[in-house]
Amino acid sequence: MPIFKRLLTNKKGSSKSIIKNSVIAGTIIFSGFGQDVMAKSKSYVAVEPLVCDLVKSIALPSDEVKCLVDRKQDVHDLKINPRQAQLLNSADKVFTLGKEMTPSMRNWENKKNTVVVGVSAIDLDDHSDHGGHDDHAKHSAKVDDHSDHGGHDDHSDHGGHDDHAEGAFEWAGKFQLSKGSYKWSFEKVDGEYADPAMKMVILKSNDIEGSEDLAKELLGSKDSIIKKNNDTLIASNKAFVLNFNQRKESTVFNVDIKEDGQYIFFTEHMPFEFEATQHFFKDVLNSDVEPIAQVPDEGEGHHHHHDHGGLDPHVWHDPHNIIKMGDVISKSLKKDISIFNRGDRKLIDERFEKADVLLESLDSWIVEQVSSIPEENRVIVSKHKAMEYYGDAFGFETISLLDFLGDSSSLRPENISSSLKMLDEEKVKAIFPEQIPVSKLLRNLSRQSSVPLASNQIYVDGLMIDGNTVSVAVHNTCTIVDSLGGSCDKESGSNLESEWYKLSD
């Protein structure tokens, strides 16, 4: 072979070798990159227990899902501590019902890694004729703003508190105090005060109820005393306007008690809204000082926490709304997966589809159970109007006792008479407590009206201590059905619960 032809042949062979090796190398690199994308698991934080259960049911089994709030904790009262803040900041994504349900999330909602899945993120069915389920297949309908839910004021963001009625107080605490000095502190929570200022009235009295009218008069008066950081407060027949120092993380007022006795503090906001690292009231030894009585009383169900404004956050009591929440979650989860990773994206779709089918079955099961209740008995009476979505979906009238009893959670003669009249006119068959032990308020009302209390409580704010998303729906339905003259098939409900558990296996 001539030398020129041999050189040309060698050059072509060399080029082919280089191209072949480059393709092989590129394939290896790209394959390695794809494996890295597929192997990299995500870390998610779900704030509320119910949201956590839902995210776990849809997320990839390889992803880590952490629940921020314990089931025993009321999410309305959540104050984010440093450890929880670190979890939120380090998570790939944070899923939450939003500030309407969990007020402390108001400062996290706008962060890029936060995904709201609650009332403000989904379209809500009006369920005006639940029997047909025609619009449920599409999982979308017009928005129902539930503006008449319990006469709530427009406090939908739980932050500004701008719409307090003149002279209103949100909390009253009675303390047994010895003569001396005390400290009342207000802290920023998540970087800001719950409000830039607040009114307070301090009265020397042993009767909260008997002092309410005077307190309201003083709080509504323009003749108030302005106080700032480190100023002193004393019992007085004038309200104090407490201005908070925006440059400081906390504003502290001295409380001077002139003589031993019982003192009542009336405040425009819950003092717990201003707690970040310490208790709001302390003595000279820096020990916590607790009230011996307070309104609202914890045992009476925290009625103030249900003033959600125009957006009622308890959307999950309608299974079709849970499906919509799951749709938001699944779409968000898929955004974290490479478009080349078709396997994991398909798996997310499959897991959501299983949840969808199961929730449709749950909806049909509830309809079947409710159909066993005589139509004239389909009235749900509880302290708060938190079952509106359930009532709308399954054909119940829902009545909030607080609409008749008022915000003081006390059985005053004029309020109890209107409540008794309502229970009689509506021919109510049962009153549904929202906590066990049942509050004294409901026990007294049941005794005077002869309307029995349901044997079990209903869970209105999330999951039970044990169980899952389906469990709470099954429990509430059987409690309602059995108490109103129907017959609940608990066995088939338990089967649905078991199927839900399999989603997160």
Widest sheet, order of strands: 8-10-7-12-5-14
Shape: flat
- Compressed to H and E, one letter per element, the order equals HEHEHEEEEEHEEEEEEEHHEHEHHEHHH
Largest sheet: 6 strands, mixed
Q: Report, as a whole number of angstroms, the end-to-end distance.
A: 70 Å
Give a summary of the structure in a few sentences.
By secondary structure, this protein is α/β, with parallel strands linked by helices. It has twelve helices and 17 strands. The N terminus is likely disordered.
Write structural notes for this entry.
With 505 residues, this protein is an alpha/beta fold. It contains twelve helices and 17 strands. The protein has helices at residues 3-39, 49-58, 82-90, 208-220, 319-334, 342-370, 388-394, 402-405, 413-425, 440-449, 469-483, 490-503; strands at residues 43-46, 64-67, 93-96, 114-116, 171-177, 180-187, 197-204, 225-227, 232-233, 240-243, 250-257, 261-267, 281-283, 293-295, 379-382, 397-400, 431-432. The strands form four sheets. Strands 8-10-7-12-5-14 form a six-stranded mixed beta sheet, covered by helices on one side. It has a four-stranded parallel beta sheet with strand order 2-1-3-4, sandwiched between helices. Strands 9-11-6-13 form a four-stranded mixed beta sheet, with no helix packed on it. α5 runs antiparallel to α6 (342-370) and α6 runs parallel beside α11. It is flat and about 70 Å long. The chain starts with a helix and ends with a helix.
